[in-house]
Amino acid sequence: MVMVIMDGVGLGGDNAGNAVKLARTPVLDRIWRDCPTTELVAHGKAVGMPSWGDMGNSEIGHNAIGAGRVFSQGAKLVDEAIKSGSLFEGTVWKELIARCVSKMSALHLIGLLSDGNVHSHIDQLFALVRAADRCGVESLFVHPLLDGRDVEKRSALSYIRPLEDLLGAIRAKGGRNYRIASGGGRMVVTMDRYCADWRIVERGYNAHVHGQGRAFASAEEAVRTYYDEDPEVIDQFVGEFVIVEDGAPVGPIGDGDGVVLFNFRGDRAIEISLAFEKDDFEHFDRGRRPDVFYAGMMQYDGDLLLPRRFLVDPPKIDRTVSEYLVEAGVRQLAVSETQKFGHVTYFWNGNRSGKFDEALEKYVEIRSDLVPFEQAPQMKAAEITDVVIDAIEKGEFPFIRLNYANGDMVGHTGLLDAAIAAVETVDTELGRLLEALDKARGVALVTADHGNSDGMYETDKKTGALKRDAEGDLVVRTAHTLNPVPFTIVGPPPFDAVPFDAGLETPMLSNIAATLLLLLGFEPPSDYDPPLIERNF
Length: 537
What we know:
This protein is of the alpha/beta class. The protein is built from 17 helices and 17 strands. It is globular, with a radius of gyration of 23 Å.
């Protein structure tokens, strides 16, 4: 059995922004027409988010698929910890504040500045800032990373301005130095993942710690300048900036300071955490490494215990489907390129970085190219397919899982033609894979973790019509969608006619694990969400 996750390929409406519909996809058209197919909810409460209005994402999507159950995720857990006050009553927060107050040192808050609720939320940042003020912290510096990916592509100022208003109001009371100190776009500064490009982390570290980077009088000036210099640049690709006054950076991180990474999601938080915490660090020259009290909003890797200190306990995901299969002696292969490698390994396994059994599991990472995704929308889909076809032909692994990153990573660029090319690439490679699997009499489960390329333009929430700006141009969308995702079973008899369970009120990603176990001939754990198919197929 091969589990195919077409990242970011959702099921949207017929409109000018749906790259999935606009693409030429003969393979998907055929299997959606001829094979057992249903739709799954991949957002909101179905994946552990606070509300149905919250989009899904790759992290929680793979958590839900691999765990077979829905766990409350970072956004919800942090909201609850702030609302109940448990975050501020915790040992780490109290120790952090005591250090800053007693040493009269600064507190630095680094993280993604938006309300996308995928990596962070601006309301959570504001709660930390207000609490620090109440607790007597005199100096606080925010190092905002601009989004433009989980929110509108040029929306940075709509978050910077209220942040500046809050910091200014606290300064106005007297005895406080609360400022924005440094930042930049998330794909340029600090938020690399899976060791794809350590230069991103180095750029951020130098700006936050050393005050090295392009100098501006304010964050708004920085954003406006980058916009003016390049009318095509969107927030996630804005260069680094350092706020300077009287010729010196206003808030570099120094000895004795406290540092909180206020992102709750782990994948893009691990590398900058390593830069602050790891002694034998070799990825770039950190120069002066300040002695700081470093904490994450959550612990981003439970196996590596990274970071050592964190404000909110992460979800405790246990007994994933891979662990079940390992205990049953089933050999497994996980394949993806760098951009999504951790999703078919770390997140799939319930935020566990290691394998359950080295003898039974094999992970293959295809290194992603360091080029803009729109320039190479094919990414590494062909190489992933080559690895999987070779494994199918050799018959070593009863269960294989893979992720095609194209629909998501290219979808985030906001460029429709590139997204169409990305979806067409996935369709072509899926065709090659299914042909090899058909020869081996195997079964494929073809799905997605959330939508993205299916909604390349913003829509009006009331009318459903595509939005247009003042000039009449369609408003580009770079975030995930709330659309359902497909789930298709492709295989020889009897798998070509597996009946879906009509009694399931809301089919979700978490129903997949029990489904694949049934199809492989195993009895799912009793507390897994029920299978999508009838048990007596």
